[in-house]
Amino acid sequence: MTTEEAANMSAAGPPQGAKAPVGGSAAHEVASVGATPSEFGRVAVLMGGVSAEREVSLMSGGGVLKALLSKGVDAHAFDPAERPLDDLKREGFDRCFIALHGRFGEDGTVQGALELLGIPYTGSGVMASAISMDKVMTKRIWRFEGLSTPAWAQVSSAEQTHAAFAELGAPMIVKPAREGSSIGFTKVLTEDQCDAAYALAAQHDVEVLCEQFIAGDEVTCPVLGAADAPTALPLIRIVAPDGNYDYQNKYFTDVTQYLVPAGLPAGEEEAISALVCRAYQVLRCRGWARADVMIDAKTRTPYLLEINTSPGMTGHSLVPMSAKAAGISYEDLCVQLLRSTTLDAKAAP
Hints:
Layout: H1 3-7, H2 37-40, E1 42-46, H3 54-70, E2 74-78, H4 87-90, E3 95-98, H5 109-117, H6 126-133, H7 135-144, E4 152-155, H8 158-168, E5 172-176, E6 186-188, H9 194-202, E7 208-212, E8 216-225, E9 231-232, E10 236-239, H10 247-251, E11 257-259, H11 268-282, E12 287-296, E13 302-308, H12 318-325, H13 330-339, H14 344-347
């Protein structure tokens, strides 16, 4: 898929077969957001890039570009894999909407380049982006702050993966420490799967994470706003075939169910929303993010898995689905995020 093809894609709604989002608390409802070309100036929608998530990024960027154009924003597609970033300065871009996913887009590198160019951008700053992309560093901070996250081991060989399996037990999750979209992910059920699981993860990162598997409900919670004043959007409960919410079922099938309202026991959604907002705060995220959580089926304890600081905006993506349940259209969400653009140097009080 080229940047031009992505720019022509529509921002589709929830995939066919998904539970349609319904309702949303009054606190989340917003009026339609308008924009004038002069408000935002010339806007680059960064999409594509060189990560393993390039194709998903092109889909996200295509949807965002169409939404911003529909709101009167002077928006243009910009693929860092095809053009140098300093073209942004030469061509007079005033802001960037980052629709890149994975490395060299979500990990602080592009954010750092935009800081040097002096062009405000959506999402978290350099430090928060870099830490959030690294699942091991994220878990270390969450654990230090007393937030619940599954037990883990960082490994650098198949032998260490076997040792982690002996410690963490079955099932065990093995995945790259710095990838997204379930790329390089394996659910290890028996020790003889450890070698292949490590080899797959190591194809994508020299740092590999082995993680205790939590059996139970899987939910995701988007967050909007500044680090000191985050707002959680409605939770989505994910019901994937055989509990396998992998790359294919995330983006290219219609068999996964997305339940909004999540249908959790009384008080659980509020508790998980508070946990996720705290997780967002301690990492100093800003603008927006989406955290994934597993709820232990026996104890009903929620465990933070990871946080995405440049979430997907495709027709299968969860942030726009949750926003819709809160009364925020895809187009209004894009404008709201664009309005939050800033630089680290300007973010300090």
